[in-house]
Amino acid sequence: MIDKRVGCAASAVADIRDGATIMIGGFGEAGSPIELIHALVDAGPRHLTVISNNTGSGRVGLAALIANGQVRKMICSYPRSANSMVFPELHRRGEIALELVPQGTLAERIRCGGAGIPAFYTATAVGTILAQGKESRRFDDAEYVMERGLRADFSLVKADRADRYGNLVYRCTARNFGPIMCTAADTTIVQVRELVPPGAIDPEVVVTPGVFVDRVVVVPHPQQESVLVKEGRRYP
Which DSSP symbol is given to 156? Predict the structure, then answer.
């Protein structure tokens, strides 16, 4: 019987080791798997490469993982945004590396990684420092830069509902990077608000089929990053 449920977030991330590459979903707060990230902070692996849209807010979630010295490199689109205080300071001191990727390019790099496409050409970033050192080519009298697909050892994703097979439904904009990150990792770990019986999710509305999901953790009352930041909370 297929059953991808895992009892707790700590068990779900227990095999993430030093040096792993991890995709973390979220568009700011929306879709950020706070409980999985905090479990990763507790687990303590170091020298991680993290692929995410941003670098977190305040001192919780992804920002807490960075503040704890566990991340050696960020691959992201928005390293500095509202309430981002940890990453900018560490980067200024040369304590964490950054690969800056335009948001649409980041999404496409992840999608290609999941689809088995090694690289693609895009006009985005042509003529800028982000194109330096990359192969370029002309198509129809226009210049394009080559970008490589992205894959990871693990993906940490937040969805709204799942069944024990790992079929996922997301809530509104919390869907953002989650579906493509599920396809682009060797092991996909998902936290969900609700677990429903098999057949309770209409196949026509399944966003991520269970074939792309390895572990499901139920978190009935997930923490909200904005609330934690507003309260001045930090983790651990």
Answer: E
Cα gap 230→20, rounded to integer Å: 31
Digit-coded pLDDT (tens) for 79-101: 998 788 899 999 999 999 999 99
The CATH fold assigned to 23-229 is: Glutaconate Coenzyme A-transferase (3.40.1080)
Please, are residues 25 and 178 in contact by the beta-carbon 8 Å criterion?
A: yes
Q: pTM (2 decimals)?
A: 0.96
The domain ranges of the chain are 23-229
